[in-house]
Amino acid sequence: MRYTKLLQDREASVTMHLPAPLAGLASELEGVDVVTSLDDRGKEMDYGVYPLSLPHIFGTTLRSIPGSCPYLSIPADRSPPTRVVSVIPRHPRAESRPRLGRKSATRE
After folding, report:
1. Model confidence pLDDT, tens digit, residues 42-73
2. d(Cα 82, Cα 73) in Å, to the nearest integer?
3. Domain enclosing residue 13, as ranges
């Protein structure tokens, strides 16, 4: 998301395809023209690029990471969340595996 302004500076029209919960955040980014959900990909593109490829494409070094912080903000019409919900599904066997910091029932 830090590279949207650089892409727009090179006269690219930036369209982001994101999960619905993230679409509101991306709509406030500088350099983003269109935000669509992952289910709504109606517009054809001339080129597509994975976001994690952009640092290599732009020749980014530690000293040239683009953007000012913070670059994400909560849209004005939404209040901050009161609790955080993970959007990453848990592994089905996560509860049956030993956890760090918890004593195992079989060990003493």
Report:
1. 667 788 888 899 999 999 999 988 877 666 77
2. 16
3. 4-76
